[in-house]
Specification:
Elements: E1 6-10, H1 15-25, E2 31-35, H2 47-63, E3 68-71, H3 74-79, H4 81-92, E4 97-99, H5 102-108, E5 117-122, H6 124-129, H7 131-139, E6 144-149, H8 153-158, H9 165-179, E7 187-190, H10 199-205, E8 211-213, H11 216-229, H12 231-234, E9 243-247, H13 251-262, E10 268-270
Parallel strand pairs: 1-2, 1-3, 2-9, 3-4, 5-6, 5-7, 7-8, 9-10
């Protein structure tokens, strides 16, 4: 079979923070990134809508030849991944794989906490899905998981307000709400791929004894491990170090925002799904 790129999907720009870490760890592979910016944000949408949008984008990746697609989006991982894995892939091609960002994170998060009290900052959609408490307790049955929905945070980032004084109010409010649920929280997960851009302000709002985790590096390490364990999939991935970027909205807009997340300039192509 012809070798093909690895697909990386997000509802918008946030997945670029994951792609950045993946390409740092695994620069030899080819990647296609798709941001569904025209329909972003996914965080406030229903399960059915998120599933419909995500599955449509995953099928686009398959049509490009991708055998492996990473949902670098917590909302899509929470609301669509299981349905796609259990219902869709068997009908299309059982050899294809779609992986998310929740499992790699929940497998290891308990290693960072001494108290077993873990805080999760996420979109409303991810919080409502309850994916993180359920998955964390599978691996760490004694863990106590506390969640806080941060509905404004993605907008702050996407509208370039993430480093402005206005962002402080919402960050401090949500972190206060989270920490108010338990005085023993010693680990906070940023369960949205947009949130690393707010890390500087988040660190100022929490005490120094709290560990704050972003997902990019965790997902990159997990992908490396997955490809080592599945040589049949690794052999199907092309290795020319090339990256293509696509967006369902304006390519010009995408390119102007993308550098903030990805750390360097990109040139994207507009896509009509």
């Amino acid at each position: 079979m012809k070798q093909q790129p690895i697909g990386i999907f997000d509802s918008g720009y946030g997945g670029l923070t994951v792609l950045k870490e993946i390409t740092k760890k695994l620069p030899q592979y080819d990647y296609i990134y798709l941001g569904d910016n025209a329909r972003s944000p996914y965080g406030t949408r229903s399960f059915d809508t998120v599933y419909e949008y995500t599955w449509q984008c995953v099928q686009w990746f398959f049509n490009q030849g991708c055998q492996l697609v990473i949902l670098a989006c917590n909302t899509a991982s929470a609301k669509a991944l299981r349905s796609i894995q259990q219902n869709n892939l068997n009908k299309i091609d059982p050899a294809k794989r779609v992986l998310g960002v929740i499992r790699p994170t929940t497998e290891i998060i308990g290693q960072f906490s001494n108290s077993g009290h873990i805080g999760v900052l996420a979109t409303s959609g991810t919080v409502v899905s309850n994916s993180y408490p359920i998955e964390i307790q599978k691996f760490y049955p004694d863990a106590h998981v506390f969640q806080e929905a941060c509905p404004m945070w993605v907008s702050l980032v996407e509208n370039n307000e993430y480093d402005k004084p206005g962002a402080d109010y919402f960050i401090q409010k949500n972190i206060k709400n989270l920490l108010g649920q338990s005085g023993k929280i010693d680990t906070i997960l940023l369960a949205c791929t947009h949130y690393p851009l707010l890390l500087e302000k988040i660190m100022k709002a929490v005490s120094s004894n709290i560990t704050v985790l972003s997902q990019g590096e965790i997902v990159a390490n997990s992908l490396e491990g997955y490809l080592q364990k599945h040589p049949e999939m690794e052999r199907m991935c092309s290795k020319n170090g090339k990256i293509s970027f696509y967006t369902t909205d304006s390519a010009e807009d995408f390119d102007s925002h993308a550098a903030i997340f990805y750390g360097k300039q990109v040139k994207s192509i507009h896509l009509n799904l």
